[in-house]
Design a protein that fits this description.
This protein is an alpha+beta fold. The protein has 14 helices and twelve strands. About 40% of the residues lie in helices and about 15% in strands.
């Protein structure tokens, strides 16, 4: 996704501050207490670290849950295989477009599906572990993109009348040096595979996966490419009314299907402690007795204290179709992050939340899970990938799938 959210961006909190916070939580009746309603099986939480690869981590996590659902087996699929293949294709597009295309770390769920269909996949241990080739313990794309971006841009904007294909060999060398070379074959559990045969062995029907969105600038029950930079493949999403979008998520979870979610996590209501709510700022301000001028002059830490004190009782907006469209058209709703929805929970007051797996390691209060209110998801969803069999039959009929 476009904005690079990594643990490096999260401020370190001192032990004393954490102790004080925990003490306050014990006496604050609004601090969240969650009860699980539905929890589907997922693979362990991973850490994308200093790489803009949430799209790869979240979507592979989604496919890992699809495999668990169908076979009961847990796999650790390789994000760096996907990144290696995807970045080469992205560079080719930029060169073909003479530079008028995006070449960046961010991507979309469609990229992962394309790589699986075209190249296959390998397990994590069939390639060097992320970051290890440059002396790091986790993925770190700071240096590799510093090298790749000017390289690709130089080729794409060359004034030469013709260019050779040798630039591809050079770029592939950079990718292999930093991310690891994609194996032509490997051994897994005593059996030799190619990436293609390994993908086939996973039991996935890759034609079952579709993307869902909800906007009014295209007709409902048609498909269109969501107009964001990271959708550089122009992957198509089926457009449904927002209430049906939410019904699809709920129906999926109820029937044992998870969701590869993409959306906006830059809002004030998305915390680094594992909670996300569609905060009604005016309502929150009114509850504190603050006028607008005083609220606007508050420091970020003071606002955070207000949000923390209100906890799960903080007022939320009631998202509408019009609200979503206005946010998209005005650049308020942005393509920030990819995550993996895998369950439903409720707080001590009965409000329901989605349980969402992140890729920032076992961070936050819930060790890598975020509890995102249904209002937050309804307002801030850009699109999501889902198994088409998880869509209610009446909606599938309208979509013709």
């Amino acid at each position: 996704m476009k904005k690079l959210f990594t643990l490096a961006l999260c401020a370190a909190i001192s032990a004393g501050a954490m102790a004080a916070k925990h003490k306050n939580e014990k006496t604050n009746p609004n601090s969240p207490v969650f009860t699980t309603i539905k929890e589907l099986k997922i693979s362990p939480v991973k850490n994308q670290n200093r790489s803009g690869t949430c799209w790869a981590y979240s979507t592979l996590s989604f496919f890992e849950s699809e495999i668990i659902k169908s076979s009961g087996k847990t796999y650790d699929l390789c994000e760096m295989f996907v990144a290696n293949k995807d970045y080469m294709e992205r560079a080719i597009i930029k060169v073909r477009m003479h530079g008028d295309a995006q070449f960046s770390q961010g991507g979309a769920a469609e990229d992962v599906l394309h790589v699986l269909k075209t190249y296959g996949i390998c397990p994590e241990n069939a390639m060097p572990l992320p970051g290890t080739l440059q002396g790091d313990s986790l993925a770190n794309f700071n240096e590799v993109f510093t090298v790749m971006e000017p390289y690709v841009n130089a080729v794409a904007t060359s004034k030469a009348k013709t260019i050779s294909n040798q630039w591809k060999a050079g770029l592939q060398g950079i990718l292999d040096a930093y991310l690891g070379k994609c194996p032509e074959s490997f051994t897994y559990e005593g059996k030799t595979y190619t990436p293609q045969s390994f993908c086939e062995s996973l039991g996935l029907n890759l034609d079952d996966y579709v993307s869902i969105t909800s906007y009014t600038h295209h007709p409902f029950y048609t498909a269109f490419p969501v107009e964001v930079q990271d959708n550089w493949r122009q992957g198509m999403s089926y457009n449904v009314p927002v209430d049906e979008m939410m019904a699809i998520i709920d129906n999926a979870l109820e029937n044992g299907y998870t969701i590869a979610w993409g959306g906006d996590v830059s809002e004030e209501g998305f915390t680094r402690d594992g909670l996300a709510m569609a905060v009604d700022v005016k309502g929150a301000r009114d509850l504190t007795g603050s006028d607008q001028a005083r609220w606007l002059n508050m420091k970020a830490a003071e606002k955070k204290n207000v949000f923390d004190s209100l906890g799960v009782k903080i007022p939320e907006v009631v998202p509408t179709q019009e609200m979503r469209q206005n946010a998209f058209d005005s650049w308020q709703l942005t393509d920030d992050h990819g995550m993996h929805i895998y369950g439903v929970a409720k707080d001590q007051f009965g409000k329901e939340y989605y349980m969402v797996k992140n890729s920032w390691g076992e961070t936050g209060k819930y060790k890598g899970t975020w509890y995102m209110s249904k209002a937050f998801i309804k307002l801030n969803t850009m699109d999501f990938m889902i198994n088409k069999n998880a869509i209610p039959k009446d909606i599938r009929k309208k979509l013709g799938i």
